[in-house]
Task: inverse folding
């Protein structure tokens, strides 16, 4: 269900922020997801310590938060799912040299 929802969100609504599982084990009741660098709380702390006013950082964060909002709306309206624990610890960050990528856990 998780992987299917992520694929459908990307395909029909151009939402890229869902984590798609890499694999699973029904016997051990485990799901394997990609590794991420940190959660949003730690990332915000790192940005604050840099005291940067770089406009590209602001633009990247704005795009990420806009996509996050679109993902939450998609879950609520299309899938009938309410994520009741949205917080920095549940938003995963993958650092890339050209952009920031936020993912919902």
Result:
């Amino acid at each position: 269900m998780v992987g299917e929802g992520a694929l459908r969100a990307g395909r029909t609504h151009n939402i890229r922020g869902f984590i798609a599982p890499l694999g699973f084990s029904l016997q051990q009741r485990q799901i394997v997801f990609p590794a991420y660098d940190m959660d949003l709380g730690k990332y915000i702390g790192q940005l604050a310590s840099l005291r940067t006013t770089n406009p590209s950082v602001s633009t990247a964060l704005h795009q990420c938060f806009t996509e996050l909002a679109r993902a939450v709306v998609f879950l609520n309206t299309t899938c009938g799912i309410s994520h009741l624990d949205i917080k920095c610890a549940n938003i995963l960050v993958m650092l890339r040299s050209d952009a920031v990528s936020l993912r919902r856990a």
